[in-house]
Specification:
It contains six helices and no strands. It is an all-alpha fold.
């Protein structure tokens, strides 16, 4: 179970944009699995991920939360250093390889909360088009 997990995509859109939004998410998954991201786009994401780690560690409550997670997961204070090294080492090729391995639209479950009229698109395997 150490390596089990899930990928979640969440967004808030107007009712009329729901089908198009879900379609675009699946198209982006396909694009990630077929095209390398640009180095510029990847650097933006790396910066965001690094900034999020810094935000989490800002203040005593954040540090306490990380310490509790370390204890629960059997890790130590070097985990975040190793995580940041991993983030810095990600390449466009690695993103492509990972997307090809894990972003399988046929294995996804789509959950839409809101308008029951949209149920026909998401609960029956109907096409989004």
């Amino acid at each position: 179970m150490e390596y089990e997990g899930y990928i979640a995509v969440a967004t808030e859109v107007a009712r009329d944009a729901t089908v198009d939004s879900v379609t675009q998410i699946y198209l982006e998954m396909e694009r990630l699995a077929t095209e390398k991201v640009t180095r510029e786009e990847l650097q933006i994401v790396k910066n965001i991920m690094t900034g999020e780690v810094m935000r989490i560690l800002d203040g005593p409550f954040g540090i306490a939360d990380v310490t509790i997670e370390n204890i629960q997961n059997g890790t130590d204070n070097t985990y975040l250093d190793r995580f940041l090294e991993e983030v810095r080492g990600i390449t466009p090729g690695k993103v492509l390889e990972t997307a090809q391995k894990y972003l399988d639209p046929d294995a996804c479950t789509t959950v839409v909360v809101g308008d029951p009229v949209l149920e026909k698109y998401f609960n029956t395997g109907a096409s989004l088009e």
